[in-house]
Please model this.
Amino acid sequence: KTTLGTKKLVALTSKSTKGSGEMLTIGNIKQLNAKRVVSCHEVYLPFATYFCHTVSSTQLYAVDIVKPETKVPVNTLLAICHMDTSTWPTNHPAFEILKATPGKGEACHWITKTGLLWVGTGERLV
Model:
């Protein structure tokens, strides 16, 4: 609440966490315009724990996942892009995967079924 500057929060997560088992493709991508975001990720310990943090210079997207033949959406997933990686350690796993170095491009990832994003209710997301 302190980080976002409000007591009125809304949690964002993927529409569904159930997989379809089908081959799917990316459909419509909508950029969400949240100014400040707190991201929470599950930490795998013997008990339920979340690590929540805020990262500057991020961009959020709502991504429709569609059936290739019909283009009918089956789910909407959240993705977050870290637009400034210049302060990340050079051995961060993202750089190996992306064949990049700190500050040389964005690093984007899905918000998984155990993750969520918090924004203030006053944010105009679209």
